[in-house]
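Researcher: Quick test of sequence recovery. Tokens follow.
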């Protein structure tokens, strides 16, 4: 399917949803839920919160389908923009609650000091990669996740994040540089521990 065909099909689905067609909403959910969940889970570091974000995305789609303008963006870009905003809002609320002591946040990331059963090198690398991604500034992390998980182009990421393609490229360059540095440092630490 070409990009033009995909846009037309997306516009038709959105029109049907705006007219109250629940089947059209289900088709849209089938196509995009997995990708949205993947980006949200990696951004938030929590599968349950990611599932809630995806549900919120489609609730908003159902309520606001009439606002979708196919001339402005592809349906997928519009959906990811909604998801990005919801993730950022959740993270801001979580940070505020942490600062004022209203909630104890439990990290879902792998323990950076592996137990006896988790000392396999691949698992340690995975834990280090997750930690390095989580440590990235929010905008860098979101750009990277949209590029890797959602397989968005620079232009699509720019649309989803409401910024320029040049800014996205800079975010990705900085994110990748930070990840390489963090992962190299992690490898050196593991090397020192094993000697």
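Model:
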């Amino acid at each position: 399917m070409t990009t033009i065909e995909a846009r037309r099909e997306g516009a038709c689905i959105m029109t049907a949803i705006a007219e109250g067609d629940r089947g059209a909403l289900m088709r849209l959910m089938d196509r995009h839920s997995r990708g949205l969940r993947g980006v949200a889970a990696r951004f938030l570091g929590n599968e349950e919160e990611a599932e809630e974000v995806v549900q919120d995305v489609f609730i908003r789609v159902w309520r606001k389908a009439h606002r979708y303008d196919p001339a402005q963006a592809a349906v997928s870009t519009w959906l990811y923009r909604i998801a990005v905003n919801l993730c950022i809002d959740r993270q801001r609320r979580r940070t505020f609650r942490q600062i004022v002591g209203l909630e104890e946040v439990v990290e879902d990331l792998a323990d950076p000091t592996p137990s006896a059963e988790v000392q396999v090198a691949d698992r340690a690398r995975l834990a280090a990669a997750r930690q390095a991604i989580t440590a990235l500034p929010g905008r860098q992390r979101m750009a990277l996740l949209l590029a890797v998980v959602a397989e968005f182009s620079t232009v699509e990421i720019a649309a989803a994040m409401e910024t320029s393609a040049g800014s996205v490229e800079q975010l990705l360059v900085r994110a990748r540089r930070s990840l390489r540095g963090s992962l190299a440092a992690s490898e050196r630490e593991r090397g020192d521990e094993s000697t």
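The chain is about 75% helix and 0% strand.
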